[in-house]
User: Fold Flp pilus assembly protein TadD from Aminobacter aganoensis.
Amino acid sequence: MLTNRSMNATGKSLARAAFMALLMAGVAGCGTSKMTTGSIGRGKSVDTMSTGAIAGSTDQIGRTYASDPNNKPVAMQYASALQMKGQTDQSLAVMRKLAIGYPKDRDVLAAYGKALAASGELQPALDAVRRAQTPEYPDWKLVSAEAAILDQLGQTQDARSLYRKALDLKPNEPTVLSNLGMSYVLEGDLTSAETYLRSAASQQGADSRVRQNLALAVGLQGRFGEAEQIAKQELSPEQAQANVTYLRNMLAQQNAWNQIKAEDKPTTN
Assistant:
């Protein structure tokens, strides 16, 4: 089982990927937009779609976007769908163009920050999210998004202070609790991480990403059967098993590599 001190680089890489996925959800939908970010049209949420369904829906909305690239809701949906497909550079290009057309729009600036963060441009992402915020009427989603970016920049204590500010603004909000839990995953404190993630998953309105992050934290502690049961709540049994198998294999490979490196170290008399 991985302990607080021994969580390996692979585990942290997986945690960062999951952390950024939840950040994408946290930044989305800020401000007054009534668009359902994370969904395409009136269909199912992107989070519950198969890879093929996401690809088909992205192609469909891409054609709509091509005919009217300045349509704000369409452009933001297209950028979100592209991120779900892993096409972060293209998503960023869509949002950069939209930000030029809507330089003071809070929703656009927030989504632009999301696209920048997904592309690894964390400092510009932080600037965009802060520009979208209004101090006299702070938006808890933007506060949490800023915290998540600070976490990625290694400013852990500042990040956690902002998570707690976001929770003051929106008590028991599952995405904020999950972001806070993932902050502890990044640090390797899996016990604290699991506590916050279980709290997040128990809240009304917790979505699939929150529960999958809990499954990740449990799996990183070597409790693969339990992690699979959590993942099965919303994924198909095949998807849940595939996710846990992937996690198990990646951790096993990393542990084997660490063992090889340890055995190759010269001994001292």
User: Anything to note?
Assistant: Confidence is low (pLDDT under 50) at residues 1-6, 22-51. The CA atoms of residues 157 and 222 lie 28 Å apart. The chain is about 70% helix and 0% strand.
